[in-house]
Specification:
91 residues, mainly alpha, endoplasmic reticulum, transmembrane helix
């Protein structure tokens, strides 16, 4: 019997590294990213990567509660609108 060897971990890691480097290259070549990185704010964040990471995490984490709040506002407004329509149409 011939045993089939699973693909080696080093080949998988090399493939993952290649895909990741292609993704990074495509993001860095984006015209909007290039124009932002040439701005003073982009240059400052490039020199202070810890601050850039903190800002990224802050905005990503704060987007969830803001989204829930906006969803609550929309659903409450819709419920109030339907309630007014039903009460006014009924009486």
């Amino acid at each position: 019997m011939v045993k089939e060897e699973p693909p080696s971990a080093s080949k998988d890691l090399q493939e993952l590294q290649r895909k990741l480097s292609l993704l990074i290259a495509s993001v860095q070549s984006n015209s909007k990213v290039v124009s932002f990185m040439k701005s003073p704010a982009g240059q400052y964040l490039d020199r202070h990567p810890f601050l850039a990471l903190n800002l990224l995490v802050f905005f990503a984490v704060s987007a969830v509660p803001v989204g829930f709040f906006l969803l609550l506002v929309v659903l409450t407004s819709l419920a109030a609108f339907l309630g007014v329509i039903l009460l006014e149409g009924c009486c």
